[in-house]
Amino acid sequence: MTDLTRLTAAELAATVASGESSAVEVTQAHLDRIAAVDTAVHAFLHVEADGALAAAKAVDERRARGEPLSPLAGVPLALKDVFTTADMPTTCGSKILDGWRPPYDATVTRLLREAGIVILGKTNLDEFAMGSSTENSAFGPTHNPWDLGRIPGGSGGGSSAALASYQAALAIGTDTGGSIRQPAAVTGTVGVKPTYGGVSRYGLVACASSLDQGGPCARTVLDAALLHEVIAGHDPMDATSIDRPVPAVVAAARRGAGGDLAGLRIGIVREFAGEGYQAGVLARFRGAVELLDELGAEVAEVSCPSFTYGLPAYYLILPSEVSSNLARFDGMRYGLRVGDEGARSAEEVMSLTRGKGFGAEAKRRIMLGTYALSSGYYEAYYGQAQKVRTLISRDFERAFQTVDVLVSPTTPTTAFPIGERADDPLAMYMADLCTIPSNLAGNAAASFPCGLADEDGLPVGLQVMAPVLADDRLYLVGAALEHAVVERWGGPLLSRAPELEVVA
Prior knowledge:
Blueprint: H1 9-18, H2 23-41, E1 44-47, H3 49-64, E2 76-80, H4 107-114, E3 118-123, H5 157-164, E4 170-174, H6 181-187, E5 190-193, E6 214-218, H7 221-231, H8 249-256, E7 265-269, H9 279-294, E8 298-302, H10 310-325, H11 346-357, H12 360-373, H13 379-399, E9 405-409, H14 425-429, H15 436-441, E10 444-452, E11 459-466, H16 471-489
Parallel strand pairs: 2-3, 2-4, 7-8, 7-9
Antiparallel strand pairs: 1-3, 4-6, 5-6, 5-10, 9-11, 10-11
Helix pairs in contact: 2-3, 7-8, 8-16, 10-12, 10-13
């Protein structure tokens, strides 16, 4: 019998639509997989088995009545626990929201339900999406299915690990400085950050509002494109939502699968190579570029000098917005409340609640941001960082006048051991070195598997960056690369991952 958890999302949708397998059977297979391996992986913070089976049953009933189904109806999905869900807790990986149930669904959640996609549960993350390893969760770290002693990336490590361990066919993540792309790179999966405003942020609990962007995570490029089309589009509930047609991402993915990139101009970012990069990562990156060249692309080096200032600018802008956004978690309205025995002032209760509810990384960024926004320092720090942000946007604009997409390694290294960078925040922040510029500029970017590093046999990702609202170019390049990588490596990279021990 076919192992339903090993099929792609497109294949699963086809089996449900044809009646070969029911949506309930597909969902139960994934729930059984979660029960078997998630004790070791810890991808999920909450599994909603009854709700998932009820949603799957509704899909089967619609099919039995002959009603049309969406292209992903009946496919199980893991949702990052930073999107509100009326029927499940939304904790953002923080003690301050432990057990909180929102009164409404995020727009992304609603669109998934309307498409008949089965939400299995909520995945683990660095607290309020602040981190690069999913070690900063208040509920414990997630483990990389390739090596359980290593990180699965962050902040969306739960979503990427759920995919890589075959616990879900699809996942949703959010990307503030690389939190979709970096986990995808270190787990051998596909992760896409759409153009800022291309996917609604309504109901996405804010980390840094000008940077956060939800997006699709999957095991194949086509699956990511199909999910992208479900969640994208204008939303009047989101003031930053773009009122423009969704790029033809599925058509681009199907076209790219043919392996022809003739005429496409690809720029290699000069600033993203050299010191600090793992030798195996650079080797796989160069190999991926050679594959793209063999597929007909025109490859040239491009300089984006302001990219070198992206990391320091980001770590002034992001903490400043964090300081503002997380001020709402004060124990007065919802979530955790500490010290409210009647003898303390509201200010004391707020202080005790925030001290108990926030973890070390959240506190660090709140303090950095509060300092950067304080009187006398605002222009020197936050103001200057915003000027650098403008320079980075201009570098992208100049580059895209001569090339169609830019490429780089997604991360400087493969997945590092859990705990290795726990006492070195600066080393941790370096994991997002290549991904941050696209968040600052708001353009589209994605990570696609491109091979395994020689040193440790762990996955390496190729980052592709495209202009604003040119998300389809990501899928064109990604699908062509996927086709070439499968041929060169004799199958999908995930097929080379070690099999997880199943709990009886």
